[in-house]
Please model this.
Amino acid sequence: MIRYVAERLAQAAVIVAFVAAISFALIHLAPGDPFSAAIDNPSINDAIRDRLRAQYGFDRPLPEQFARYIGQLSRGELGWSFSHDRPVRDVLADALPNTLLLMSVALVGSFTLGILIALVQVARRGSATDHVLGGISLFFLSMPDFWFAILALLAFTYWLPIFPVGGAVDPVMHEYMSIGGRIFDRLRHLLLPALTLTLLASASVARYQRAALLDVLPADYIRTARLKGLTEKAILRRHALRNATLPIITMIGLSFPALLTGAVFIERVFAWPGMGYAVVNAIAARDYPLVVGAVIIGSIMVMVGSLLADILYAWADPRIRDE
Amino acid sequence: MNSIAHSRQSPLGQTLARILERRSSRVALGILTAIVLVGILAPLIAPYDPAAQPDIVALKELAPSWLHPFGTDPYSRDVLSRVIYGARLSLFIGFLATLVSLTLGVAYGATAGYAGGLIDSIMMRILDAFLAIPRLLLLVAILAAWPQLSVGALILFLGLTGWFGVSRIVRGQVLALKHAEFVTAARALGASRRRILWRHLLPNLVSPIVVAATIGVAHVIVLEAGLSYLGIGVPQPEASWGNIIRDGSDQVATLWWMSLFPGLMMVLTVMTLNVLAESMRGAYDRSST
Amino acid sequence: MTASASSSTALLSIRDLRTYFHMGSAVARSVDGVSFDIGAGETVGIVGESGCGKSVTALSILRLIQPPGRIEAGSRIEFEGKDLVTLGDEEIRHVRGNRISMIFQEPMSALNPVFTVGDQVAEVARIHAGVSRKEAWNRAVEALALTGIPAAADRARQFPHQLSGGMRQRVLIAMALMMKPALVIADEPTTALDVTIQAQILELLVDLQKKFGTSILMITHDLGVIAETTSRVIVMYAGEIVEEAAVDELFSKPHHPYTEGLMHAMPHIGRELERLNVIPGTVPAPTDWPLGCRFRDRCPYSWDLCAHEHPPLYQIGTSHTSRCHLAIEPERRKHPHPPLVVMEGAAVA
Model:
């Protein structure tokens, strides 16, 4: 087990290095360099730019620059964000918790909802309920994240104004609230974006879980369970679901890229101050180091997610746990 | 019992015949054909020029009416015409980018699967690394570096970032088929490697590839719209569904028609593609068991 | 008509059981009008090649047939005064694992890989005895010990993959006997096991049967297993019973040519028939059984009567029946000919 985790960690490290190499290549293939990107700022003249280039080593030969870049990355330095005038690391460190909050609420929510939907579908397989729920999940699966977010925003902040328009907290009043009021304020702001991401993500969970349950049902041990005199519901809940949990753990690992992508758009639409929001603003401000930094952190998040899912998988399956 | 009736058809023909047995896939195919026709015939169907700005004061931001069923945008352009031209552009990008992905994916996957051994495992490790990077983030990194790329370059990058999944499917199929009896038989008869690959393996790959391509087109359409919405997709003032939504995104509440209609078209397109992919996969699974 | 040893006091009484699978326009008549009885404490064997309907018969008794299969109207399975075919879902569940239980061929796949074996055995007691988790566990350990599993308390905490094939089969037997059922259906209980383990498991089943007075329905394609364990044998072919007799009678005086063929295919006890396959040809497809005798193509005695008249079960001894027209024209047995499948095969070649 420990060896397995170590192997996976080594693999992940190689992949991060690979991502870093790609982003390094992108930085240097792109027209100009990060310093010419700050062209909109009239207060920075060419002399200052050259000094910055020298300061960050952009005048050195490429291999040396790459070695420096990797060295910086391994120390957690991601460069300088021009639009924020702060280190990229600090900007992302501020944004990351908000993204993680949104993603984890949506992760828990979408797996709970998705599994419930799948259980209902499989318990009534072939019925109208099964088909209708299947159609709804396909509809949600086909919806671009940002469009559904816009619809949710339109519906619940303008037409039926029960949620605040955006942000993580009330921009003016939050400072003056009591602790309870602040918590409520945060929850109020979190609910709509989190719900949106949950609904979007639960569609694929439901579809995947339904297929996993249907895969398990013809197994001999399900017949054994029937033979014991268990009810169909108990068989689904106890025997089938427990076995279909293994594929669902794999699904957790696989769902991180989609969750992260969804979070980028949802943060943009709801002005939720997370990494996605930071990236979108960085694109507009041509703050390329921030964009690349966010991509690297995003890739690491996805990798850590799939690694955790794999470990969880090994732990949940007694056959693998022993090896 | 049905397999006997279909057995003289090619695997793809069988799959197509099977999916048309289902009403949902017939409906989906009908809708998709209609959307494709709208895209192809856009210049004939669109009531206005999608780029024309007839009166940016009097005709801007008009709510849907008989004259402008989908309303007008802040530059007084007709949203219906732009949505129709958007269908043309989105489908064009989806189709071409998927073609690029398929070519790369099939070549890479078939090579890895057929070579096997060390080459295969190295190629798969590289693939793992690519798959670990979320496609959207990778595209954001690339497209943010080159602002205002042409549509051609956008297609190329969408294609370049979309082949990983396909190549994994192809490799799996090639590995499975490599040891199938008919391939062994062909080899025993002295067929060359290349001949085996082209004559025997690829025809068997057609069905899974068509499924992957259908889903691929749907993905690209959603991605392109998302990137355009973020301002790094199709260059302005070209009409794509994502661009139209972006043009209205500063005033979502007042210009709701600019989000609603292009989005509905997009969902309809993507959903029909997904329905078709699903029934094809079902038909393919049934015929292979 | 049937040759039951004790039809008036039968524990299980099956009458005209028909289990069909409806696949589109085709109907597979897997079990096609089967009737037999099992007395209390009796061990009855069903023997036949794969595809003859013996396993479907077993699954039908517990109503474990999944769609598109279904038990056709008019079939009756009487057990302890109830008709299992028309019993409500709730009541049939009360029978399963409690009054009738079943042991399967594949002891690995029949156990759920993610629960400990103790859990899975205990589950039976939790369902039917309504006892506490702890009490159910104790009973499970007891049952496991009874089936000869050493250090049962420790073994109970293990997962199926940690046990050998023989041990897993003992677990399934423990599960089946947990509630001391009136009838145990054993569907090829030893096929997947090594020869030495096979003998141990059969011995265990016979021992436990004596201890509890349980009836056993032993389903197998291995006449050796039949000879060792049963007192009465039913031979099935193409969804029907073709011969039924006491075990000694069947072995000394087989009547149906199919039974004869099975006997010839059995050089030693414990060897498997299907691999030897000395009866030429195969079982016809259940979607189109032949009109006359279903064994005609493979039979060395068949004549024109067999082509158009489906043979009834002829009474040929006190408790011996056979579905073969030889019962009315016994002299034809003296003049065998190559079976039709062989002649047709020769003609094609």
Q: What stands out?
A: Chain B touches chain A at residues 125, 128-129, 132-138, 140-142, 144-147, 218, 222, 225-226, 229-232, 245, 249, 252-253, 256, 259-260, 263, 266-267, 270-271, 273-275, 278 (CB under 8 Å). Chain B is about 75% helix and 0% strand.
